Amino acid sequence: MPQLRSRDTAAAPILECLPPAMQEEILSRLPIRDAARTSVLSRVWRRRWEPVPYRFLDWPPGTPTGTVDRVIARCAHPVHQFRHPYVRELDFGRFSLWLLRLAALGVRSVSAEFQYSNIYRLHPCIFSCSHLATLDLLGCKIQAPPPTFVGFPSLTTLSLSKVGFAQGARGLEALIFSSPSLRTLQLDTMSIPTVEVDGEEEEVFEQWVINAPNLRRLQITQNYYYGWHFSALPFLEVADVSGLFFGFYPADRDFLMLISALDQPTKLKLSMPFTSSDALEGLSPSFENLKSLSLRTQLCFPSGIVNILRVVKNAPKLEELDIEFMDYEDKLAEANINSLYAHCADDLFSNLTNVRIKGAICERNEMLLIEFLLSKAAQLEALDVSLSICCSRSAKDVLAEAAQYGRASPGADVTIKRYQYIP
């Protein structure tokens, strides 16, 4: 530690000898938190960092509000990024002032988390930030845009968590539509109100559309479906809607519409409907690019296996299959393995090399699916099964049963292990 202090003391005079313009250039290239740390170098450097025109304002937790005020007020050049990890309720008004200044400075990236959820009404000047490329917000309410708002032509990344809209779902729909360059969209636990039906408020959501023709990555983390559908997504590469509990999905036709619009990704994560019906009957698109598929489902009905097969047989390039079994909510209705063969072609699983199953309790339907995979996947290299804490069978017992199944790939490595809690 004494050596570190000695080095700092020796460095300070050297830095002070540099021309002021060079000092500013050095400081402006540092993250704001590192620039602020130069205040410990010497008395001369204590406030040297404050008037520098920073392009990346990434505030560390606990930064005094006054410091943010002074730096933003002195900014004379465009700001590329503003990030505040935690805006207290006491500072909501200050944030509005910061945002006004940032809009004038042509900010390109705004990321902020607000104390409490959906209380702070984001200042409408956010719509004046016409150069935004990234907007990342947690815990606020977005007001209606002014009539002069023409969109965010440069916005490529939109990440919203616990965010509400004064216009309801239509406000979110309009925000996405006004961002034609959008490449990444993340929606997490959005605050979307229900609508009234026959004068009474019910758990029904207004139907709206995610219209983002250039979208590459999509992630929706929401327990319940809240009325959204997709327009064409021709460039979508990665889609994750596995957070939805499709056991509560309003209708099979809605799920069919959803999955039919997600036929382009190479990587797809889904929650499957927990119903006794064949929810994917009539599924027509071919998931010709799909190489990695992750599913959350339960197999209390034979239709659970059939629905999995309907997706897989439309994915000829599928290489990796991950399945997470949810807890059963209904009495088990056993499937028949002969009926499963009627739903597949001879080349099903032709490119499948890795299967991972999580949360298995090894009831009959789950074991039938394992048997079916082993008997059909000729290129299979590994099948890993992680048993649920609710599974009454031992890993050794399950492995012994799986060893009796016929295998299309003799070299496939089958692993059965108990659930392990990782804190």
Q: How would you describe what is shown here?
A:
Helix 4 runs parallel beside helix 5 (92-104). The chain has helices spanning 2-16, 20-28, 32-37, 65-74, 92-104, 169-177, 252-260, 302-312, 337-341, 364-376, 395-402; strands at 56-58, 81-87, 109-114, 120-122, 134-142, 157-165, 184-188, 196-197, 200-201, 208-210, 217-221, 228-230, 238-241, 267-271, 292-297, 320-325, 354-360, 382-387, 413-417. The radius of gyration is 27 Å and the shape is elongated. Helix 8 (302-312) links the parallel strand 15 (292-297) and strand 16 (320-325). It has three domains: 1-52, no CATH class; 53-236; 273-423, no CATH class. It contains eleven helices and 19 strands. The longest helix has 15 residues, at 2-16. 26% of the residues lie in helices and 23% in strands. It is of the alpha/beta class.
Defining traits:
23% strand, 11 helices, two-stranded antiparallel sheet, 15-stranded parallel β-sheet, elongated, alpha/beta
Q: Helix fraction?
A: 25-40%
Domain module tally: 3
Which segments are poorly predicted (pLDDT under 50) over 5 or more consecutive residues? Answer: 1-9
**Rg over C-alpha atoms, rounded to the nearest angstrom:** 27 Å
Largest sheet: 15 strands, parallel
Structural class: alpha/beta
Beta content comes to 15-25%
Silhouette:
elongated
Give the N-to-C terminal Cα separation. 34 Å
Order of helices and strands: HHHEHEHEEEEHEEEEEEEHEEHEHEHEHE
The overall strand count is 19
How would you state the average pLDDT, rounded? 84
Q: Count helical runs.
A: 11
